[in-house]
Write a structure and sequence with these properties.
two-stranded parallel sheet, 12 helices, binds S-adenosyl-L-homocysteine, binds iron/sulfur cluster, elongated, 10-stranded mixed β-sheet
């Protein structure tokens, strides 16, 4: 009999599993806490479970996350794990510590079928979807490894290391829908990680029908990889755009906001020299989100392109990025430039970094921006240096 990996089970499935073993639902809750709050994988150590249950589990189940191939910490504290997901495939999980939070960036697929022009994951092609256990296993492994390193006890009393999760690693989460949503539900569950929906962000290249589905099933914070201000350009950068063009994508974003834990969508925009980074592009973007068929409450996150040789693309220079950001900000759109972190351990894929400004909801008009500048100081809404 194959062993059941308990990391694959959502709360309801764990209850069902325990009931198959003749156990009451509260046992499933206890078990879930042992696994996800104490990081336990050894059933014999789960002392408040009946010995008979522990014995049954020991012969039928495991708690197993993907094996760690490498584990590197950057000089800035960023820690990257390379994880073996079998058949020569590996995915990454990256921890980015900041002053008041710790963000874990996780992967949802080995490779990616969307094949965006500027993305090295896309260039690998699609290998396979990750299972629930492989997705939540990244959080499970990282939280308890980080605690071990710092000598922090497991369990709810110990200081939580990962306060935020972003699905911005390898893969397109909305093309691995069910396992992604199950993993999200575990992140939010009070008997597991208990993260608030605002602190969990899913990033998508724009799989419109599944944006709607996510709004119904598990509305967490949403980031959308925009990268272009018109359909012709986006078709060439994000091939999925041919299927779900900008107008449909914008409408889906607005629909999603009805259910979202935040009242804006974050648009990610990878800054590519001479491709999508002119002032004209910025003005076109403003028109798209402010004056298009629908008005989209949003903020922008400009990501300096992280170059890789086969792409044939280069990063926009810093003054150009600032100019671009200024056009958006002058239109009252909160705009941040993503810092590159973990450069020295190659964890700076552009997708893997903290936001420099995340203070409040997006403001639509200049007057609002001025009010905030009065309230929070003159630097509110201004750009922070690109640190790469
Ligand atoms: N597939 C999802 C989530 C993973 S990619 C998505 O596309 O949204 C996370 C973010 O990193 C996306 O915004 C993506 O466009 C960006 N990205 C990918 N490759 C990059 C690179 N080489 N430089 C900068 N950003 C990149
Ligand atoms: Fe896939 Fe996202 Fe990379 Fe595009 S940017 S290829 S959707 S991982």
């Amino acid at each position: 009999m194959a062993l059941t990996n308990l990391l694959d089970l959502d709360p309801a499935q764990l209850v069902a599993y325990c009931s198959e073993l003749g156990e009451k639902p509260f046992r499933a809750k206890q078990l879930q806490r042992w696994i996800h709050q104490f990081g336990a994988s050894d059933f014999t150590a789960m002392t408040d479970l009946a010995k008979s249950l522990r014995d049954k589990l020991a012969t039928r189940a495991v708690v197993q996350s993907p094996a760690v191939i490498s584990d590197h910490t950057s000089t800035d504290g960023t820690r990257k794990w390379l994880l073996d997901v079998g058949q020569g495939n590996a995915v990454e999980a990256v921890f980015i510590p900041e002053e008041n939070r710790g963000t874990l960036c996780i992967s949802t697929q080995a490779g990616c079928a969307v094949n965006c022009r500027f993305c090295s994951t896309g260039k690998q092609g699609f290998n396979r979807n990750l299972t629930v256990g492989e997705i939540i296993g990244q959080l499970w492994m990282a939280e308890f490894e980080l605690r071990k390193t710092k000598g922090i006890e497991p369990g709810p009393k110990g200081e939580r290391q990962i306060t935020n999760v972003v699905m911005m690693g390898m893969g397109e989460p909305l093309l691995n829908y069910e396992p992604t949503v199950t993993a999200l539900k575990l992140m939010l569950d009070d008997n597991a990680y208990g993260l608030s929906r605002r602190r969990v962000t899913l990033s998508t290249s724009g799989v419109v029908p599944n944006i709607d589905k996510l709004g119904q099933d598990c509305p967490v914070a949403l980031a959308v990889s925009l990268h272009a201000s018109n359909d012709a350009l986006r078709d060439s950068l994000v091939p999925l755009n041919k299927k779900y063009p900008l107008k449909e994508l914008m409408a889906a974003c607005v629909r999603y906001l009805e259910f979202a834990p935040r009242d804006f969508v974050t648009f990610e925009y990878c800054m590519l020299d001479g491709v999508n980074d002119t002032e004209q592009h910025a003005r076109e973007l403003v028109a798209l989100v402010r004056h298009g068929a629908v008005l989209v409450p949003c903020k922008f996150n400009l990501i300096p392109f992280n170059p890789f040789p086969e792409s044939g693309l280069t990063r926009s220079n810093n003054p150009q990025i600032k100019l671009f950001a200024q056009v958006l900000m002058d239109a009252g759109i909160v705009t941040t430039i993503r810092k590159t972190r973990g450069d020295d351990i190659d964890a700076a894929c552009g997708q893997l970094a903290g936001e420099v400004q995340d203070r409040t909801k997006v403001q639509e008009r200049m007057q609002k921006m001025a009010e905030y500048q009065q309230k929070f100081g003159k630097d509110f809404g201004r750009l922070v240096e690109v640190t790469s």
